[in-house]
Write a structure and sequence with these properties.
globular; 293 residues; 17% strand; eight-stranded parallel β-barrel; TIM Barrel; alpha/beta
Length: 293
């Protein structure tokens, strides 16, 4: 999928022709956001821009860019995959490779809450911004909203996300908001709060962000409390894959149950499909696509 000649050409273009990126985006053939059965299947690869490179026992699994691009190209070969959610460097590379023609491209906005950092919940815009998403012809923007009521940094991120939702809506573009409840563990480290009340509250907060919710979508985990969270809003929902468990069959079963909820419209899955335990990316993507059918 990314032979030596193509790889060398990409590296040469990167070094000698920065204008090729804009040319690639300008020439990309776009498509409607939803079509057919209204389901969406996006592959997520915005983790590196937040310094989150680990998969399973390998802390640097996503650090090899050629390997990551090969895996993304393999996933995009599947006819059921609608597009990619990634940071600007990854999306620019896929555009240069011609891999986004007729596919959706969602930009990721706030990657500044670096994984494991002291300021992780103060998650500023460090990647795509709403204006660039519109000008480059991307199809929407995703933002991460981690909520911890005991951490004042949450307030800054909350206000920023509200502004980005409004800006994207003014451009007629979808905002994909990922609200996740967090808390500090006994050791002081951030950990997900998987309780139903916390997720429900996160959804109601996310649904009310910005001047209008007309273009807002939610990106939610497949947890026991997800049904109640989805019932708290009429907004369309995409199920996120989360950290790989190593048990794809169990992940698929969980996604299938959540996809049966009336507001759920599809999947956004990254590492679980791009780095499956058996190494067969296409088979993992195909198995997820069948869950959507």
């Amino acid at each position: 999928m990314l032979d030596d000649e193509t790889w060398a050409r990409l590296l040469h273009t990167r070094a000698t022709d920065p204008g090729a990126v804009a040319t690639a985006w300008a020439g990309r053939r776009r498509r409607p956001l939803v079509r057919g059965d209204g389901r969406l299947f996006l592959v997520a690869a915005d983790h590196p821009a937040r310094g989150a490179l680990g998969v399973g026992a390998d802390p640097l699994a996503m650090a090899d860019r050629r390997s990551l691009l090969r895996r993304l190209l393999t996933a995009l070969r599947h006819p059921k995959v609608d597009g990619v959610l990634a940071g600007p460097d990854v999306l620019d590379e896929l555009a240069l490779l011609g891999a986004l023609d007729g596919r959706l491209a969602f930009g990721s906005l706030n990657r500044g809450g670096l994984a494991g950092s002291a300021w992780e919940l103060d998650d500023p815009l460090t990647a795509h911004d709403p204006r660039a998403i519109a000008e480059q012809g991307l199809d929407g923007g995703k933002m991460l909203l981690r909520l911890d009521l005991a951490d004042r940094d949450t307030r800054t991120t909350l206000a920023a996300c509200a502004g980005w939702v409004s800006e994207l809506a003014r451009a007629g573009l979808p905002a994909l908001v990922e609200p996740l409840p967090y808390r500090r563990g006994t050791d002081g480290d951030l950990e997900l709060d998987r309780s139903e009340p916390a997720l429900v509250r996160a959804v109601t907060v996310a649904a009310g962000l910005g001047a209008t919710s007309a273009h807002t979508w939610l990106k939610l985990p497949s947890w026991p409390g997800t049904a109640a969270a989805c019932a708290a809003s009429t907004l369309p929902v995409l199920v996120l894959g989360g950290a790989p468990t190593g048990d794809l069959a169990a992940d698929l079963a969980g996604w299938r149950a959540t996809l049966a909820l009336p507001t759920v419209r599809g999947l956004v899955v990254g590492r679980t499909l791009l780095y499956p335990s058996d190494g067969d990316v296409y088979a993992a993507v195909d198995a997820a696509a069948k869950v959507l059918s």
